[in-house]
Each structure stands twice: as C-alpha cells, then as structure tokens.
Amino acid sequence: MPDDHSALQDMFIGIAGIIGAGKTTLAIALGEHLGLPVYFEPVQDNEYLADFYRDTARYAFSMQIYLLNRRFQQHQEVIWRGGGGVQDRTIYEDAVFAKTLVDMGLMEERDYRTYLSLFKHMSNFMCRPNLIVYLDLTPESSLARIKLRSRNVETGITIEYLAGLQAEYERFIEQISRTIPVIRVNWEQYRDADEMATAIEQEYLSASFLREVEWTPHKAV
C-alpha cells in the first residue's frame, strides 16, 4: 500500500543516469511506494544490444534508432494510458549516448545529424515528464556495478566510455533542467525508497528547476 505522497500521484517521473547507476532498482521501489506503473528500459528484448557491444562502430546508428523508436513508443504509452508512471531512463537521454559515440569516433557525424533531426520531429509529439531524477555516479562506481550484475553483453564496457557518458550527462542535465525540473541525487550510496519519495516531493514542491539532494539515510537498505 503506497504512502500518502499526494503531490507525486499521477506524475510522470523519469529516472536518469549512466549505465549501472541503479535506475531500475529505484524505479521499481518508487513505483511500488507511490502506486505508479513502472516502464523499463528495453534491454532483455533488444536485438541490437549484443552486436552493438561486439562491434560498436558498425551498429551505433542502428542501435540509436532502435532505442529511439522503442522509447518513443513507451513514452507515448505513459501519456496515453494516463495515471502517471516511473520511467527507467527517458527518451531525452538517448541523445547523450549518441553524442558520446560521435565524440569517441564510433558514429559518423552525418548519422548523428540524421538522428537529431528525427528526434526533433518526434519531440513535437511528446509531453514532457513532470520531473527527472538524476542519479549522480562516478564512472568508477558505474563500472563496478556493471561488473557486479554480470551481463555478458556488457563485458566490453570501458571506463573511457563511461567517463565520456558522464561528461555528456553533465551537459545534458544543465540543458534539460531549463525546461524540466531535475532533482539530482548523489547515488554512490543507495537510498531508501520512502526517504527518496519524501525528498523528491519536497524538492518538487519547491519549484526549483535544478536541485541537488543530500541527506543521511535513517533506514538500513
């Protein structure tokens, strides 16, 4: 039975962060706590994922288009079903990965321009989330968590790739917070869902567009 966090009921909440940050874990916990449906990142049925990690340069564009399509479909489902939801990674973050691939020489500039053009046209049909919760994590901690969860397709992920993603995420958060409220949380340590929901509600009601949340957890997790 969800606690009474009335300000968060029926809200569309996006969970953002680099690979291995713990987005899915928090999304599930918040969904259960707030009585909101959870929309997961397409991983298990992603038919490009293994090829992308095996030969990134060859499959970078295909991967990004596949994810953009799937996430747009999911984004629209959240809106049309109504009643809010918690989304494990937002459609807006896909551009972070695309830009990182370009910067690392793993995607052609013309493919990136095509991707951005498509995203721009699709964005005309999207409703923004009520807020985004950004889980801030170092590349080193991200890599450690990736190794801990032991997904075979992720064995080739490098610290350089994660560092590039984090740098691009910093730019992304600065930009997106101008139009969508962003709550930034240090996620080096996992937080309790109840305290997280309370902190999100308090910061969201403060109506500030970029807030950094810090507190000492009172409950063991």
How would you describe the overall organization of this protein?
The chain is an alpha/beta fold. Helices cover 50% and strands 12% of the residues. The chain has helices at residues 23-34, 49-54, 56-81, 94-103, 109-123, 139-149, 159-176, 193-205; strands at 12-16, 38-39, 85-88, 131-136, 182-186, 210-213. Strands 2-3-1-4-5-6 form a six-stranded parallel beta sheet, with helices on both faces. Strand 5 (182-186), helix 8 and strand 6 form a beta-alpha-beta unit. Helix 1 crosses helix 8 (193-205). The longest helix has 26 residues, at 56-81. The protein is globular. The mean pLDDT is 86.
Secondary-structure-based class equals alpha/beta
Q: Beta-strand level of the residues, as a percent range?
A: 5-15%
The helix content is 40-55%
How many β strands by DSSP? 6
| Number of helical regions | 8
How can the largest sheet be summarized?
6 strands, parallel
- How does CATH name the architecture? 3-Layer(aba) Sandwich
Shape estimate:
globular
Radius of gyration: 17 Å
CATH topology: Rossmann fold
Order of helices and strands: EHEHHEHHEHHEHE
Q: CA-to-CA gap between the ends?
A: 19 Å
The tally of domains stands at: 1
Question: What name goes with the CATH superfamily?
Answer: P-loop containing nucleotide triphosphate hydrolases
CATH level 1 class label? Alpha Beta
Average pLDDT taken over every residue: 86
- Read across the widest sheet, the strand sequence of neighbours is 2-3-1-4-5-6
